[in-house]
Amino acid sequence: MNQTVHIVNGNYEYRRMFESRGWTVTGVGLDGNPFRVGPVPTLVQFTGGEDVTPWLYGERAHRTTGYNFGRDIREIEIFGMALERQIPMAGICRGGQFLNVMCGGKMWQNVDHHAIGGTHGVRDTATGEVFQATSTHHQMMRPGRTAHIVGVADPSLSTKKESMVHENGFGRRDVEIVYYDQQNVLCFQPHPEFPGQDALADTYFEYIDQYLLNPDNYEYEEE
Asked: Which CATH number fits the domain that encloses residue 97?
């Protein structure tokens, strides 16, 4: 079966990652309605970039937060169209954080020890297996109440988690991957599209297959 993906605000690296695994890319960017012309895609992929506008999850901005409200508005429209058509959605880094907020989650607006430009271990909560993931973000997901936590940093790396509501999240897990079954949404903070991250990309596509394309087969940690 030919899988197709619409990549929202993407670039060559996202296209390369999907095409190298046999997917057909039906769109890259934010050029109008992605579902108006041509076949409905198998997946809508949201991508990295600026922080999510904090008022979307009911907070004012932290001094370290840099957001693009115009981008958020355009992507909210695409999220709504995909949700209406029951198209699975996945997000990488900022894209995962955006989808987390759209599904009722919030953000830690400033965390330490994650914007390192390197990798750290992520533990799959269902299997206990640990894999290496890129770590370039200074914010981190606070999952909503309907989220299933799929992957956490192993061990917890950050010594502070700041927001404008919870001043200190010390001791809470560093959540890297969450799944929302009601919306069929996967939020993935690492960057599998980066050059040299083929093993991480393989893991990412395993999660897409397990959670989004075959959701009856998924396993997750009960909270």
From this structure: 3.40.50.880
